[in-house]
Fold this sequence. Notes:
The structure is a homodimer. By secondary structure, the first copy, chain A, is of the alpha/beta class. Chain A has one domain (4-273): TIM Barrel (Alpha-Beta Barrel), CATH 3.20.20.150. Chain A has helices spanning 20-30, 39-42, 46-56, 75-94, 114-135, 158-168, 180-183, 189-196, 229-238, 260-273, and strands at 7-10, 34-38, 60-68, 100-103, 139-141, 174-179, 200-205, 245-247. An 8-stranded parallel beta barrel of chain A has the order 1-2-3-4-5-6-7-8, surrounded by 5 helices. At the A-B interface, α6 of A face α6 of B.
Amino acid sequence: xxxxxLLSINQxxxxxxxxxxxxxxxxxxxxxxAISVWRDxxxxxxxxxxxxxxxxxxxxxxxxxxxxxxxxxxxxxxxKAMDEVRRAIDEAAEIKALCLVFVAGGVDPREKDIKAARxxxxxxxxxxVPHARGANVRLAIEPLHPMICATRSVVSTMALANDWxxxxxxxxxxxxxxxxxxxWWDPQLEAEIARAGKRICAFxxxxxxxxxxxxxxxxxxxxxxxxxxxxxRRMVEAAGYRGHREVEIFSARNWWKRDPDEVIxxxxxxxxxxx
Amino acid sequence: xxxxxLLSINQxxxxxxxxxxxxxxxxxxxxxxAISVWRDxxxxxxxxxxxxxxxxxxxxxxxxxxxxxxxxxxxxxxxKAMDEVRRAIDEAAEIKALCLVFVAGGVDPREKDIKAARxxxxxxxxxxVPHARGANVRLAIEPLHPMICATRSVVSTMALANDWxxxxxxxxxxxxxxxxxxxWWDPQLEAEIARAGKRICAFxxxxxxxxxxxxxxxxxxxxxxxxxxxxxRRMVEAAGYRGHREVEIFSARNWWKRDPDEVIxxxxxxxxxxx
Lengths: 275, 275
């Protein structure tokens, strides 16, 4: 049996059903140990009230999702995006999140230069490190699936996340989030998870559906797809990770339409049978 | 100006508009140098008649698409798939295709074991090498986008295609097809194209649309997306490739609905401005 105290629910999994207040109260009542907070939804009540509620319900915060999108070739746009990341760092500190998920940003269609986008994002991430260190917030670089490279993140592999960590030399404050959905296909996965070692500060789980119908909003429940999630869990554990297993399912056609108590019930079952 | 004799049209780009006969006749009249034949469509007239028509119109055949799908854990299924590849090799020889595009196959949902699927596909590909050599047909391993790893191909990167070529030790008869759409996001792309060198025996072009709406059938016309296609063309040329630039656009919502002469006109323009 896996420890339910290490089961975290990313709020986005119930994006359409629950406000942040409802999520905290429901998860608190359910006896689960942790939540991951979706930043857009936190605007409903603000970080201070979120922190108060989370404390009151005894939940850990496995992460704050997300900040970044700092690849723009436009300097004014980039400065604005950097300010937004700094605000997110402060919010992550306020709600005592174990990490702030960092999503690099995509490729600007005006420029069409993925190498330049990657170089800028790494430079700017380096600039953000002192602020994160000052706030005692760990930034978790999250490699995202190559199918959202154009729009969300030019960090498409564990290898690149590791390369960035090497370049930053800031393992005290920059780590990596491993998301099964984003990395399961990667022939280098096992080697690069081992290379990441203690950098791994978040582990996100969902499944890849054979009949995937959308590049972002059609993730599957653990067990419903083709990913060997237990194998990837064993890899991150062999690398030294001992933290939460965070369920993060964007599912416009299925799970976002279901009764939230049913979703939580299925997650608890699958946590034991398919994680 | 790029040489129009090196512009090839993959028949799938006009899948909904043209039969193979129409495609051959129209491309022959247009003065373009080459076609890539879609195997499913060739069943309309058979390989012998296709060969006769292609010869009569003076077209080169940059490839026959496709054969493979040999990852099944079921022995009977696999044997059937292997026979089908052998038939495709013979057809490729008959129409004098410069290569037969090899698509490995996906991950079986009953098994959920990508490592096992990869191992089987490589073993079976090795078994097919003598038949290909005997028929004097080059097999082009095509890395496909990770978003179709579950259903189409467990070969998701150039690095893995190169690893397979190393393992096979059959560079005389096994090469690699580089498709901009499948590989543009890869941080290791430049290094792995250089590593591939003379293995590259096909170069497929299309663009990645920012608002991609389907994992398979929503490719963009060159110039309409975020891929720096000229940069990738220069990489394959630096590696020694001198063959066709083959336009392969699956586009259910746009190009498959257009007048075929307009599609060809736009392709010729974009071949000069965005390739």
